[in-house]
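Example 5.3 — Lrp/AsnC family transcriptional regulator
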Amino acid sequence: MSAMLDDLDRGLVALLQANARTSTADLARALGVARTTIVARLSRLEGNGTIVGYTVRLGATQGVQGVQAYVNLSVSPKSAKAVIERLSLLPELRQLAAVSGEFDYLAILRAPSTQRLDALLDEIGELDGVLRTTTSVQLALRVDRVA
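Solution (predicted structure tokens):
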């Protein structure tokens, strides 16, 4: 978030992250302030770039069936570009991030089944330049604030 937020701002943002369609009257009731205070805060938060939009998130059963996994990859520096190019061709790849720490990259995969995930992991592990991988399979999503 781009500006310093006070407790009221943080509460407002949290409520909107849970349900961006909540009315200003309901937000005001939940936060114990006047509706006009909420309107002013929203205007300020939108104006300073803290809130940059409102969106729709699909439920877990809408178009995202299957299994999600987080794959840490150690990659030979000389092979990084080729590995990234090859990974980007996988339709199951949702995100690929360069990360600090023990591993070089974090890949987020969504496969339709554990069998397909297993095959993907084998395919990734066999890529020239991939030195090591570790995988965590998502069992349940407890908090989701990403649209």
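Remark. The CA atoms of residues 4 and 10 lie 10 Å apart.
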